[in-house]
From TrEMBL:
TM stretches of this protein: 28-54
Broad class of where this protein is predominantly found: membrane
Species, as recorded: Engystomops pustulosus (Tungara frog)
Superkingdom, natural source: Eukaryota
Protein name: LDLRAD1-like C-terminal domain-containing protein
Keywords associated with the record: Disulfide bond, Membrane, Repeat, Transmembrane, Transmembrane helix
Amino acid sequence: MDAASMGSTVTMLSRDEKDACCGCSRRCVCIIGVILVLLMIVAAAIVCAVVLALPARTPETRYCVTSDNYTGFLCDDRKTCLLPSQVCNSASDCGNGEDEASSLCSDLPNNLPGYLIFRCGNPQFWIYSNLKCNGINNCGDCSDESESLASCSSCPSNWWPCTPVLYQYCSCIPKSLCRNGVQDCVSWSDEYQCT
Ligand SMILES: [Ca+2]
Ligand SMILES: [Ca+2]
Ligand SMILES: [Ca+2]
């Protein structure tokens, strides 16, 4: 082999090596890229699994106000505000059932936040706070409808003020009982004056 052909061989080998090297680099880049994408997918899946597996964080306070303007119980989702009477009523109303947790309901009403309950005139009895000033005699002694204990200022809307005949009311009757042919007020005002 003369020097010229030797040089040609060296040049050809160098070109082959260069091609081989470039081909390998492209493959390497492709493989590394695929591995990176796979790693990112796995990492994203792990993050999603961890986030979904984490229990919802308990709100620092359960105090909230319902759409009807009652003081209520805030669920773990920090959006749902339950009426007090929906707590410990044996129905799961929060997404995780935290309104029925034994830590709240095992010793009623002592483990309930004070803003969810109303102590009646007889302290042995209690009602949920959304039941005071609703016109109905929930305590049995009308203390939940009184101005002195429950700070009830007037009859609920669509109620008629009078001394009711029926024990279930206190100082008002539902206007649906007006002029129905039945005496519901001691004074008969439900049949002769109610408008
Ligand atoms: Ca409930
Ligand atoms: Ca009541
Ligand atoms: Ca009547």
